[in-house]
Design a protein that fits this description.
mainly alpha, 9 helices, 64% helix
């Protein structure tokens, strides 16, 4: 299932969401402007390599991507789910939330394979946190979703909770299945446990950080 759009309105401008998308795209455009050798050196320098862990690289790795499908897919998910979580938290708190989710995601994958020498890159762990928060706050929102059934493509509208729980368990089972297999020996791949760690962090942090006053007042008026 691939989400096309959600039905949950946002009542404020998603400034940080848009800024994050722009920064990620610009960094990726810089990546592809490099020759293959320089690009590999750049990713090795600023990606997160578990074998020589660096907190600075946890941050920089969130803005690197491995290909067009990687960056465009991540930014699309951020665009669909990010505006509503930013609406709840406010821009400054949303940025903190996003970075903390990315850190939790990186730690989850690091702990699963601390000896890996393959650079970890991508915003998907942080975006998984946004999706976890969306599950908590908007479980009954509807997601217009693209589905592939054999050779047929169709669209269906599904509740957010169904799509997000399905996404989580796919990543959880894939992540558990990957334990014991060296990430490095496989030449890289999808960091499923980073997705799981980010998602769970998002669920916890949306409660810990709390909504901004404007959102609380709007909820009081609604009820």
């Amino acid at each position: 299932m691939f989400p096309l759009r959600d039905t949950q309105p946002s009542y404020s401008k998603p400034v940080v969401t848009v800024l994050l998308i722009v920064v990620n795209i610009l960094v990726f455009l810089f990546e592809v402007s490099l020759d293959p050798y320089s690009r590999n050196e750049f990713i090795a320098a600023y990606g997160l390599v578990p074998d020589h862990f660096s907190f600075l690289n946890v941050l920089t790795s969130m803005f690197l991507h491995g290909g067009w499908m990687h960056v465009l897919g991540n930014m699309w998910f951020l665009w669909i789910f990010g505006d509503n979580i930013e609406d709840i938290l406010g821009s400054a708190k949303f940025l903190l939330f996003y970075l903390l989710c990315g850190f939790a995601a990186a730690m989850a994958q690091f702990l699963a394979d601390p000896g890996s020498r393959v650079p970890m890159v991508g915003a998907s762990g942080a975006i998984a946190g946004v999706m976890g928060a969306y599950l908590v706050k908007f479980p009954h929102s509807r997601i217009h979703t693209l589905v592939f059934i054999f050779f047929f493509i169709s669209t269906v509208e599904v509740p957010a909770w169904l799509m997000l729980i399905y996404w989580f368990f796919i990543n959880l089972f894939s992540g558990v299945g990957s334990i014991g297999h060296s990430y490095a020996s496989q030449g890289g791949g999808v960091a499923f446990l980073a997705h799981v760690g980010g998602f769970l962090a998002g669920i916890a942090l949306i409660f810990l950080l709390g909504p901004r006053q404007r959102y609380t007042k709007r909820q009081d008026l609604y009820w």
